[in-house]
Amino acid sequence: MRLPLGSAGAGAYIQGMKQIILAAFLATAAAPASADFLKDFEQFSEESQKFLEGWVDKIGPSIEAFGPALDALMEKIDDWTFYELPEVLPNGDIIIRRKQSAPKLAPPAPQKPDDKAIDL
After folding, report:
1. Distance, CA of 37 to CA of 40 (rounded, Å)
2. Alpha carbon 54 to its chain's center
3. Which of 1-5, 53-57, 116-120 has the lowest mean pLDDT?
4. CB-based contacts of 64, cutoff 8 Å, min separation 6
5. In a domain, 53, yes or no
6. How many domains are contained in the chain?
């Protein structure tokens, strides 16, 4: 399975890698370069692209499986700068603590009653 370049996670990673490769090329292009160097760099760039595309093909289904969970998490986190780095607990749970210096969160909006709910 192949993810489009614009998909969450993998597409952004590939775009970032392309930018890094381009920046490295531009930084070295300012210096006098031999034809061999440019040929080697072009080959490196092509091989890097193949590697990243293969990587996306292999992890694509995993990224798609986590998509809904990541979307739900993004809705709950207002600003990443207000949170500590994720922490893995001994039981395997992952928690993301809110910094004490962060402003207080607004209370969640009340949920509308579900039409299919049954009153007990």
Report:
1. 5
2. 17
3. 1-5
4. 1, 3, 7
5. yes
6. 1
Residue 83 contacts residue 97 (beta carbons within 8 Å): yes
> What is the chain's mean pLDDT, rounded?
74
pLDDT tens string 66-105: 778 777 877 777 777 888 898 999 999 999 888 888 888 7
Taking each helix axis from N to C end, the angle separating 10-29 and 35-76, rounded to the nearest 10 degrees, works out to 150
DSSP code for 90: T
On whether residue 115 sits in a domain, the answer given is no
Instruction: Look at the alpha carbons of 102, 104, 110, 116 in this order and tell me if their dihedral is positive or negative.
Output: positive
Contact in structure between 2 and 54 (CB atoms under 8 Å):
no
Give the end-to-end CA distance of the chain in Å, rounded to a whole number.
46
Nearest to 52 by CA among 102, 112, 12: 12
Range of the domain at 34: 10-77
Q: Is residue 3 part of a domain?
A: no
Which residue, 120, 118, 78, is CA-closest to 98? 78
Residues facing residue 26 across a β-bridge: none
